[in-house]
Amino acid sequence: MEELYDVAVVGYGPVGQTLAILLGRCGWKVAVFEKQPAPYPMPRAVHLDHEVARILQGAGLGEELPRLTEPAHTYEWRNATGETLLLIGSKAASLSGWPESNMFSQPELERALDARVRALASVAVHRACEVVELRADGSQVELMIASPDGVRRELRSSWVVGCDGANSFVRQHLGTAVTDLGFFYDWLIVDVIPREPRAWDPINWQLCDPRRPTTLVSGGPGRRRWEFMCLPGESIAELNNEATAWRLLAPWGVTPDTAALERHTVYRFQARWTDRWRSGRLLLAGDAAHQMPPFAGQGMCAGIRDAANLAWKLDLVLKGLARDAILDTYPSERIPQVRQVIDFSIELGKVICVPDPAAAAERDAAMIAAARARGPSPPLPTPAIGPGLLLDDDPLAGHLFLQGEVRRGAVTGRFDDLVGSGFALVSSAGDPAAQLDADAAAFFGALGGVSAQIASSGPIVDERGSYREWFAAHQVAVVLQRPDFHLFGTAPAVEGANRLVRRLRSALAG
Ligand SMILES: Cc1cc2nc3c(=O)[nH]c(=O)nc-3n(C[C@H](O)[C@H](O)[C@H](O)COP(=O)(O)OP(=O)(O)OC[C@H]3O[C@@H](n4cnc5c(N)ncnc54)[C@H](O)[C@@H]3O)c2cc1C
After folding, report:
1. Does pTM top 0.90 for this prediction?
2. How far does residue 187's CA lie from ligand 1's centre (Å)?
């Protein structure tokens, strides 16, 4: 084990893996420490959204994602008699160039992420290594690592990111309190592999039956997921066994003859968050900073957004292109969005976690009428991030920007693959690079920024007209997109590109 790292990542779940890839791809010397000797095998996330798919594309998984995921176009909530309480319809084509909703198996995704991490020469993964002590001084952090055989080693890192899950060890060192919103329920989670292909319609739904609130969703290609709520008076021991799983699956035509039971376990769904994600050289990401009930399928997604927000900021600080104060914009941007997603997950949970028949009847009466009047709703649009490294007088700043299909020369594909990711100046009204004065061009070049003029006849061709539509709808001519695909800012004329880059330089200088 080498002595000094640029970034030490504590925890090798999907958030630690993604962060390690994003930093490793920039060439930083990253050490990952994971206390478990083997990957976590139990059922967890099954849904990821379009933005997370784009982040994973940026982490090198673009070609594998179609094999790992199954798009889901509906998510329906029904009462005990089959009436629709809520219908969420999502689109195959989204803002980010991926289906809005994608179903997958978390262990499969973690395997794919692990393969990307292992391919990076500058990232070292140390399993069966628990971080047991942290000491931060002004310029470095000392970490004490313990192996199961009792051997202890000490090493140093410039930055430490705790991606160490719900019981985070790193969080304890930030001196931060966890706010528990008091919404918790126990559920039995069961993943099965049907022996024969079977059409599941709807692909994803919630049975809001007070006799046994149940979730029935895709578990990714070739898999199905059932989740059964623990009823009042039922013990966890009673619920958490294979015989109970088969008994609860039987009414759905799922038996040992028709399916293999891949795994099952009981989880307590919780809604908790912490408001301090940085203390000097220590940072938090993923479940270490926030947990939410899974009804919106957003816990891991939020953690992967954390990794995407933090990685480029750490990269700029390590390169000396930004002051470390920009790391304070990581929590200021992420927390307001995470809070909204937690609240939304709780609201969905309140619809289904209702074991009382009278309360369920009241809910049904209110929701059926509203569902009829409204029809299918789109999925929750990702809320904008909070204030931070953004053009503060621009209402579009902090919102996600588009990834459309483009053609460059003879090749057609997604923008990030063909043009590049990182900071991007994009315009459909002219060449944004040609607007930069020498200083701004040199600064933007040092950032590794890319510039693209997208139009119906090139140089980069807007294959489906999505950029033309976006620019027209928002009445802007040029955007400056950050490496996490959020808009730093926009301008009404392509000449505004120079001001955008200058404002970015001021923001990075603090
Ligand atoms: C039933 C269920 C369904 C879910 N469904 C969804 C969904 O559909 N969509 C979604 O987005 N999310 C979902 N989630 C949430 C998602 O699974 C989690 O948010 C995600 O796994 C968190 O990833 P993480 O990397 O932050 O933490 P984890 O995956 O928990 O990884 C943390 C790692 O840190 C390690 N560690 C801890 N302490 C130390 C230490 N001191 N030293 C070294 N290593 C340490 C742990 O061993 C662990 O491997 C679901 C969760 C559950 C339980």
Report:
1. yes
2. 17
